[in-house]
Amino acid sequence: xxDKVVTIIKKHKLLTAFVIAALIKQLLVMGLPIHIVPDSTCxxxxxxxxxxxxxxxxxxxxxxxxxxxxxxxxxxFMAVCYRLHLPFIFMITLGYSLSCMCFCTALKKIFSSNxxxxxxxxxxxxxxxxxxxxxxxxxYRNGLGMVLTLFVFxxxxxxxxxxCDEKIKSLVCWSVFTxxxxxxxxxxxxxxxxxxxxxxVICTVMFGILLAKKRNFKSIPxxxxxxxxxxxIFLFAHIVGFCNILWYGYPxxxxxxxxxxxxxxxxxxxxxxxxxxxxxKLKEIYEISPTLAGVKGKLEKAMDxxxxxxxxxxxxxxxxxxxxxxxxxxxxxxxxxxxxxxANTFYKNVYEELEAxxxxxxxxxxxxxxxxxYYIDTAVHRGEIVERIQDIITYMNTYKGAYTRGFTRxxxxxxxxxxxxxxxxKATRKLEKYENDYIMxxxxxxxxxxxxxxxxxxxxxxxxxFAEVRLxxxxxxxxxxxxxxxxxxxxxxxxxxxxxxxxxENKSTEWYLSVYQDGExxxxxxxxxxxxxxxxxxxxxxxxxxxxxxxxxERSDAQRKRIVGRLNSIGDIYxxxxxxxxxxxxxxxxxxxxxxxxxxxxxxxxxxxAWLTATGLGLSVIVxxxxxxxxxxxxxxxxxxxxxSSAYAVFISAKLISICKCxxxxxxxxxxxxxxxxxxxxxxxxxx
Length: 688
What we know:
By secondary structure, the chain is of the alpha+beta class. It is 58% helix and 8% strand. Strands 3-2-6-7-8 form a 5-stranded antiparallel β-sheet, with no helix packed on it. α6 runs antiparallel to α25. The longest helix has 52 residues, at 550-601. The protein is globular, with a radius of gyration of 31 Å. The protein starts with a helix and ends in a 5-residue tail after the last helix. 37% of the residues are buried.
């Protein structure tokens, strides 16, 4: 058995090295907490709620303000992980390791040595973005988007290198895999259009290769395989549309997009390039659109709320990146989102009123040319977009924001427990400076007992009292329980905070909240970090928000700091080497290009595939950076590793392919010269 294992390892050395490195990565992130972003109503919170709803087979739940506003792919992924009890951080890390393997096994075709392939894999695997707080730790779609992006590029390269294989099986498998990856990526992140140029070009090149080498009837299946990546996009889009129709009666809000388009293209005096519709102009539109005027009050309040997120919050305007959210939220607050049909009818009426105003001249539509649309209509704009692209490239090279965090924000909200339940990972907050051994916070209501006369204590399992619990004002809980059987006056005073020391007492005891009245024990309910123990005989409602055993928490915090410290130390290496590696990659690419051009004159194509791969990946990153720069200049700030996460691996690959292939070419050239020199000396030898 041992000999068989050794034989397999020797036969698959590269794969074995891949797996060992991936296991090391899994061990490094073990114990890493999730990073909660409080009040992320239309981001983390929304996708979390959708995931729970999907896990109950109820699609995205009740129709509401943000239905159709985000892609559903991440929520579906989380629902599956939740049902299978698979931890979020473990699955994203595993998925990324597999995507690196998929991508790098395709690169074996362009290198003569497995060492180069492993170097690229290793650098990709441990790039600090893959364990940063806004990508791996945050319960949002960034990590999954990064995984799917690398799967798409890897699948396309595998298709390219197997398009003319004698057996078609490999091409079919990789084309289906690529189609599924690209399709699923499309319903996970909307900003994936930057991948399509690479996809289109590589499929066109493959089509040309087939025309040159496989021009026969039997090769028709090979040609059909080239359509799989695009078929995947349409397949997943139609699946989501079908589910929307099944659940809401409509595939989307048909008139929402046209209304946004009309409102953001009205000719007016704009405050700046990021403001598509000024507040002053919006007031004029109320007079033109009676339907929109009907929600004026709520809409103005929503615009006020979103104006603070702008680059210049003091101007009270709403930038393009937030305008759609503000419009939907204001209209929803006015009661127009009671059903999908009602919301669609509302938008349809607004659309028709705006179209009528355009037709009779009351409003004038701003004509936006291609150059203006892409912010290259003036020398100033062209200079700005080039400068912003350079900033993005520098930002990515330096891994500026790619840091791991040990704690979530100081604000501790009730929804954290839901994130922990969904992800099977813990969210931790920094321990406050308490002097006592135990700290417990939460709220509890006993409807059968008078809050003004009862006394509440923390007791151990033997009934020894350690702290008196004083119930405090809790209007937030009262508002939360409105409309339920717990809507009682006592609920306005149900929050508590208890601290106690145990001294030399038994540290393994269980803890209870005990209710007394006139010295008589009425209720005793177990409490720990998991919450209150459910008991059918006790009529109560409550939650434990915080339960800390200080000694245990301090040990846990110290361990977490060590994990974060190790990961950030890896990140520091990348931050130091980032810029030098970029310039080395650029120089290597120039040299590689010169070698390829020189070889082409001799009709040699030794380094052609490596050069084409590096060029394709590099151009994809430039297209991506240009798109991010455009959004940053015209909508809202997006130069952040959260938005850039999907492109880091592609960028790293483009640099390393150039460096490794250039080094490999240099070694080969030196070896050729050495061999030629030996042959020359051999010919000059005079035999006696």
